[in-house]
């Protein structure tokens, strides 16, 4: 069993241990000497500077980098495991807050929690257990660590792993006796849109400098030569570091088995995976079905490629603890409104309380406790708990041990719950702050509108 998981801290990646040499010391040194090292998180600076170098060297454009993110956000709409599933226009992506170089906020992977797993077995095991119809074969795999060129050439493109990605890909294709032209679907490490565009070139999908043209011409989405990141990629699916590689493996396995339905890449025979970590290693893997003649159409009622939860299993609703009933009304313990009556959100919470009472299925669908911190015009914060975890659920005044805490202004809260403000856009613009389990925040769609 290969298992990967990550529970990440809020915010951008930072340096955790300062009492020892950092694996990125050399990388940051090259960055500082060639482009300067400014304020803010190091990762977007490094990949953003690689994008700037590509623009200077080859004439690639801001729009071409944004098209990468546009594609991946669009792909994510069909993946139930994606952290974000909203589709954005090219204009929205380009106008989202600037981060570094050509990168805007919607071109950067989010902070994510997640887990993924794969079972690796021998050929004998597959045959003995009659698993030929679903067995995916690893045709070739290569890991390459930082090369001298990563540091010696003063290149922002090379310091973020271009050469090691290219060497790993070349090794894999040589071992498997295949080329990139044999591949139909690719899951690659798009931590930032700039890195996806660079990786097109590293994997030899196009000559150096032509990555922008490749995405511009639609050659990396459905109807093009390859489909890259049908899952939505790290930009939309999320990037829980320890789980990312195995999540890519899962997506490509579903594609090879023909299980991906609404995001299925037609006639998939070969699937390529690229994963990367600064400080520094790149891993490239080529997959195919081990017994392609024994693959049959997937017909089971539970398809993990499109069902994030097993629909054949009944929802389990926890019984009501004896002491829970008094706190599950829509009023505070003293019988007053959960927020001051002059706040617009008071009416929304009242409606929400009635909706929970009239639709008990919300408890099973959401199965979480939310704490909303509503900020009034003076800046004062009013905490409200919405319990959709323990039947009969309800709305009450005050703080709680919540699965997810959301902080938002009174006005924006009303806009969000009346459909005038998209929750994900509010989060991206800083109007909505989220702490705790992001997957519960995504379930807000069950309540909004």
Fold and architecture overview:
The chain is of the alpha+beta class and 449 residues long. 34% of the residues lie in helices and 17% in strands. It contains 17 helices and 14 strands. The protein has helices at residues 25-34, 42-58, 62-76, 90-95, 123-128, 149-152, 156-159, 162-176, 193-202, 211-216, 233-237, 244-257, 345-358, 361-366, 410-417, 423-428, 438-442, and strands at 2-6, 98-100, 103-104, 114-118, 136-145, 185-187, 227-228, 271-277, 281-289, 368-375, 381-388, 394-397, 404-409, 433-436. Strands 5-9-8-6-7 form a 5-stranded mixed beta sheet, with helices on both faces. The chain has a 5-stranded mixed beta sheet with strand order 12-11-10-13-14. A hairpin with a 3-residue loop joins strand 8 and strand 9 (281-289). Mean pLDDT is 87; it is low at 320-335.
Strand order of the largest sheet: 5-9-8-6-7
Total helices: the number is 17
Q: Report the principal-axis shape.
A: globular
- Strand-pairing-aware structural class: alpha+beta
**How far apart lie the N and C ends?**
42 Å
Number of separate strands: 14
Give the rounded overall mean pLDDT: 87
Radius of gyration over all CA atoms, rounded: 24 Å
Strand content: 15-25%
Regions with little confidence, pLDDT below 50 for 5+ residues: 320-335
Helix content range: 25-40%
The biggest sheet amounts to:
5 strands, mixed
């Amino acid at each position: 069993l290969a298992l990967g998981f990550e529970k990440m801290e809020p915010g951008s990646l930072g340096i955790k241990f300062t009492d020892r040499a950092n694996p990125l010391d050399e990388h940051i040194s090259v960055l500082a000497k060639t482009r300067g090292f400014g304020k803010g998180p190091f990762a977007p600076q490094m990949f953003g500077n690689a994008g700037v170098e590509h623009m200077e060297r080859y004439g690639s454009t801001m729009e071409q980098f944004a098209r990468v993110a546009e594609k991946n956000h669009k792909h994510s709409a069909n993946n139930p495991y994606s952290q974000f599933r909203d589709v954005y226009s090219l204009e929205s992506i380009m106008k989202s807050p600037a981060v570094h170089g050509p990168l805007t906020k919607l071109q950067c992977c989010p902070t994510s929690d997640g887990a993924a797993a794969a079972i690796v077995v021998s050929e004998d095991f597959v045959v003995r257990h009659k698993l030929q119809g679903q067995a995916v074969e690893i045709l070739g795999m290569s890991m390459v660590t930082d090369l001298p060129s990563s540091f010696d050439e003063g290149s922002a493109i090379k310091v973020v792993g271009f050469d090691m990605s290219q060497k790993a890909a070349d090794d894999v294709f040589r071992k498997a006796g295949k080329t990139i032209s044999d591949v139909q679907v690719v899951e690659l490490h798009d931590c930032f849109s700039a890195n996806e565009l660079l990786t097109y070139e590293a994997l030899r999908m196009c000559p150096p400098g032509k990555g922008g043209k490749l995405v511009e011409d639609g050659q990396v989405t459905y109807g093009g030569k390859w489909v890259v990141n049908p899952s939505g990629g790290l930009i939309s699916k999320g990037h829980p570091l320890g789980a990312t590689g195995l999540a890519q493996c899962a997506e490509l396995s579903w594609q090879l088995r023909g299980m991906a339905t609404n995001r299925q890449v037609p006639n998939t025979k070969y699937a390529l995976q690229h994963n990367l970590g600064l400080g520094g290693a790149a891993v490239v893997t080529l997959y195919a079905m081990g017994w392609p003649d024994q693959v049959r159409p997937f017909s089971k009622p539970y398809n993990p490629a499109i069902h994030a939860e097993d629909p054949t299993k009944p929802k389990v609703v926890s019984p009501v603890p004896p002491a829970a009933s008094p706190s599950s009304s829509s009023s505070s313990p003293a019988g007053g409104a959960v927020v001051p009556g002059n706040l617009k959100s008071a009416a929304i919470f009242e409606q929400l309380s009635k909706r929970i009472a009239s639709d008990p299925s919300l408890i099973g669908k959401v199965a979480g406790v939310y704490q909303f911190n509503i900020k009034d015009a003076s800046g004062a914060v009013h905490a409200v708990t919405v319990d959709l975890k323990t039947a009969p659920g309800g709305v009450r005044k005050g703080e709680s041990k919540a699965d997810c805490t959301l902080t938002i202004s009174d006005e924006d809260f009303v806009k969000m719950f009346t459909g005038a403000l998209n929750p994900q856009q509010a989060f991206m613009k800083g109007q909505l702050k989220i702490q705790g389990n992001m997957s519960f925040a995504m379930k807000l769609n069950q309540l909004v509108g």
